[in-house]
Amino acid sequence: MHDQLFSILLLLTAAVGAVAVTRRFGLPSMLAYLAIGMVLGPHGAAFLSESHEVGTFAEFGVVFLMFSIGLEFSLQRLRTMRALVFGFGAAQVFFTAGGTMLLTVVGYQQGWKAGLVVGLAVAMSSTAIVAKMLSERFELHSRSGRLTMGALLFQDLAVVPFLILIPALAQPEGQLLRQLGIASLQAVVLLVVLIWVGQRIMKRLFDSIAHHRSEELFVLATLWIVVGLSYATGLAGLSLALGAFVGGMLISETVYRHQVEADIRPFRDVLLGLFFVTVGMLLDVGFVLDNFWRLLLAVALLVVGKGVVVLLITLSTRATPDTALRTSAQLAQGGEFGLVLIQLAFAHQLIRADVFQVTLAAMLMSMFIAPFLIERVARLGGEMARGDWAHKAKAIYEVATSAFGMEDHVILCGYGRTGEQIGNFLAAEKIAFLALDVDPGAVKRAIPEGGKVVFGGADRIEVLKAAGLMRAQAVVIAYPDTLSAERVLQIVRQHRTDIPVIVRAPDDTDVERLKRAGATEVIPEVLEGSLMIAAETLTQLGVPMERAIERVRLVREARYASMRDFYRKGPE
Question: The pTM is what?
Answer without folding.
Answer: 0.60
